[in-house]
Design brief:
The protein has 252 residues and is α/β, with parallel strands linked by helices. It has helices at residues 32-40, 96-109, 132-149, 163-169, 206-214, 229-244, and strands spanning 14-17, 27-30, 48-52, 57-66, 71-80, 87-92, 113-117, 156-157, 174-184, 194-197, 218-221. It has a six-stranded parallel sheet. A five-stranded mixed sheet has the order 1-3-4-5-2. A hairpin with a 4-residue loop joins strand 3 (48-52) and strand 4 (57-66). The two termini are 23 Å apart.
């Protein structure tokens, strides 16, 4: 089992993602994506790499074998990172490229979960980010962001949901809905866990907003200008992360 201490990453090392668990003193075999990446960065046998599994495990090892379709790592040491205070993001189903960008930045910030919401005005967007193929692209973007940021936890990705189901599945704790008519976000008491909901291009219908308010979501605003949903999502998540960075409440 991994130790409970968290190793400080070495920025110059190559970082690799493992979908499987890894343990110190054992051999880890990674598939073609990892092998291709090592060829691109011109890695060599014996080079030290960092390892992540997206579920809190971090480690380091050395490259023992490189083949066209796989790479073998001798795992040297492992650790388990503490989860960050929970921040749950209800992202709108919208333009797929903007959704991918938001997913990337949300992973870098350390968002705990990602729940795509199909608002009424989401249906008029094309091409929008939904379906099995898109979810595969979204996960790949999150993995790349995790490695780049040297994080330890991938967001938990939930299935697409209409607003009523998203509300029913929302975690307890602080709940905020981004809205121009709300109070300044800095006036909100953002103690963990925090759930952030944001609407799609074109905004939220009045009845949708009312349903969120009735379920305990507070309306907050990021300022006087109208932001694209991906900009608003990153700004709100970053403020929530900064506000909860010293929290010890890690219940999801």
């Amino acid at each position: 089992m991994p130790n409970t201490w968290f190793m400080r990453p070495v920025p110059s090392r190559i970082a690799l993602f493992s979908p499987d668990p890894f343990d110190a003193g054992k051999v880890l075999t990674l598939a073609e994506d990892a092998a291709n990446h090592l060829r691109v960065v011109r890695a060599s046998l014996g080079d030290t790499v960092d390892l992540r599994d997206g579920r809190g495990a971090v480690g380091s090892g050395t490259i023992a074998r490189m083949a066209r379709g796989s790479v073998t790592i001798d795992v040297m040491e492992t650790a388990m990172a503490e989860p960050l205070p929970p921040i749950h993001l209800m992202a709108p189903i919208g333009d797929r490229d903007r959704m991918l960008w938001l997913a990337e930045k949300a992973t870098e910030i350390g968002v705990t979960s990602w729940r795509p919401v199909l608002w009424k005005r989401s249906k008029s967007v094309s091409p929008r980010g939904e379906g099995t193929m898109f979810m595969g692209k979204l996960r790949a973007r999150m993995v790349a962001a995790l490695l780049q940021s040297r994080g330890a936890w991938l967001p938990e990705v939930h299935p697409d949901a209409p607003p009523d189901r998203a509300i029913a599945a929302a975690s307890p704790g602080v709940r905020i809905l981004l809205d121009a008519a709300g109070s300044p976000i800095l006036s909100a008491a953002l103690s963990s866990p925090v759930t952030i909901a944001l609407g799609p291009e074109g905004g939220i219908e009045a009845e949708e907003k009312a349903a969120f308010v009735e379920s305990g979501f507070s309306l907050v605003t990021l300022g006087s200008t109208t932001l694209r949903f991906e900009t608003a999502g990153v700004a709100a998540a970053a403020i929530a992360r900064a506000s909860t960075s010293h929290s010890t409440d890690t219940h999801v």
